[in-house]
Amino acid sequence: MPIIKFSMLISGSSSQELARKIAAELNEELIQAETKKFPDGELSVRIEQDITEPAVVIQSLNHPQNDNLVELLFILDLLALKGVKKIACVIPYYAYARQDKVFKKGELDSARTIAKILKDSNVSYAVTCDLHFQRTEGEFDLYGIPAYNVAAGDLLVDKAKQEFGDVTVITPDAGSAEQAKAVGGVSLSKERLTSFEVELSGEVDATGKNILLLDDMVTTGGTMIKALKLMKEKGAAKTIAAFTHAAFVGDASDRLKASADLVIAADTIPSEFAKVTVSEKIAEAIKKWKT
Ligand code: R5P
Fold first, then answer.
1. Band (219; pLDDT cuts 50, 70, 90)
2. Is 190 noted as a catalytic residue in this protein?
3. CA of 247 to the centre of ligand 1 (A)
4. Is the pLDDT of residue 282 over 70?
5. CA angle 50, 24, 86 (to 5 degrees)
6. pLDDT per residue over 150-173, tens digit each?
């Protein structure tokens, strides 16, 4: 039973298309914050309209992640100035999620820091998608913020099946094991050698099969391209690169296109590969907010 009664949806600049789809799913009006960038790189954000609570802010933290984060914080502070205290935040791509622990003495768990800033900005509910440290769909605790994580794996697998019929799902590392399990797949093992290079291993029978490689995100493409090559070497009939977040750097998208028979992503970050939308699942997750 959804407890949310009325909400105003406000979109930042990074998720405009997805925000429109979410608003259409919820049959709610969408307010677009006006963002300006000055020549020195500083941002200014304006929301002319009055806002009533509860309000839902939608903003992905993809590249340029620090700009998108500052824009989100400005939107949240504008809402506070307008007297809005009940705020949910939809963050389709949550930057810094891979820094989810202190790896070396003296470092930060930066994912926690982001959540702390959001909490200090009145965010009392968060919706994320295939968060690096929360790969299954459902409710979870985002460092003290009640949250719901949406998984895109089933949508990506269904899309690949429409193209190729039967597919066998494999994830490139043990970190994706839960994601693989949710869609009946198995995982390879990964060792990261440098920021761009990984070593993969694992016993997988790929001969003559359509192999769908599933991951939460692609940045340099190192992991996915290595996995695609490995599956071809093992005799895969077709290879499909499927991932939620197209967080590409450099020429990763071109190298990926050249390495797979099909590349599909979700629309958490706009890209030419965004062939499935998480809008319906996000709309359902917003409805679960107990304001
Ligand atoms: C790592 O744990 C993630 O699940 C991805 O496999 C990784 O972030 C992909 O990065 P890249 O494209 O640079 O290999």
1. very high
2. yes
3. 10
4. yes
5. 40
6. 999 999 999 999 999 999 999 888
185 CB under 6 A from ligand 1? no
For strands 8-11 and 30-32, give the pairing: parallel
Q: Which of 83, 87, 148 is nearest to 122 (CA)?
A: 87
H runs (alpha helix) in the chain: 16-26, 65-81, 110-120, 153-164, 177-182, 222-233, 252-259, 279-287
**Cβ(153)–Cβ(240) below 8 Å:** no
Q: Which residue has the tokens 């066998």?
A: 168
User: Tokens representing 12?
Assistant: 């930042």
Which stretches does DSSP call E strand in the chain?
A: 8-11, 30-32, 34-37, 43-46, 55-58, 87-91, 123-129, 138-142, 145-150, 168-171, 186-187, 189-192, 198-201, 210-218, 238-246, 262-266, 274-276
Ligand 1 center from residue 220 Cα (angstroms) = 8
Please state which of the ranges 127-136, 178-187, 243-252, 282-291 shows the lowest mean pLDDT: 178-187
d(Cα 286, Cα 291) in Å, to the nearest integer? Answer: 10
- CA 88, CA 121: separation in Å to the nearest integer? 11
Q: Which of 190, 192, 215 is the pocket-test mutation for ligand 1 (most atoms within 8 Å of CB)?
A: 215
